[in-house]
Amino acid sequence: MHMRILDTDDSQAWKGAWLATLMLLALSVSPLATAMDISSPPTGMENTTMWMTVGEQRFAISLEDNPATRELVARVPLNLDMTDLHNNEKYATLEQPLPTQEYSPGTIQTGDLLLYGSDTLVIFYKTFTSSYSYSRLGHIDNSTGLAEALGRKNVRVRFSAD
């Protein structure tokens, strides 16, 4: 039996061939990953916008991607009788609690949609500072006319997917 030992030139040629093959493989898989969108995990939410209707006015709400918003979206359409508090927010107690991820925002912005505790949905129509903790649900995209639409009294608000 004859055994042939590769000389240095043959060994280098094989290394070069393997390197070229690996590079071609990497280049061919990269566009496939982009086309199939396997490079990033799914967010879990197909629609990141919810609608809020007050009387005849409609406001788009950009939602956070978290367990509370996913569960809230699963409950819409939802009609809530909301109570005014401190002339800067409307709130309503939900029938069932939502998951929480509380944080202290420091400054509440006009248009914030937050969850106080696990079952109180709050819409803010004025900007102010606060030491309270909330779970972020979303933010009204364009809050122009929000304070006027909500008024200073209790109001019925409809949340919907479309």
TrEMBL record:
It holds the Pfam family Cyclophil_like2. Residues 52-159 form the Cyclophilin-like domain. This is Cyclophilin-like domain-containing protein. It comes from Pseudomonas helmanticensis.
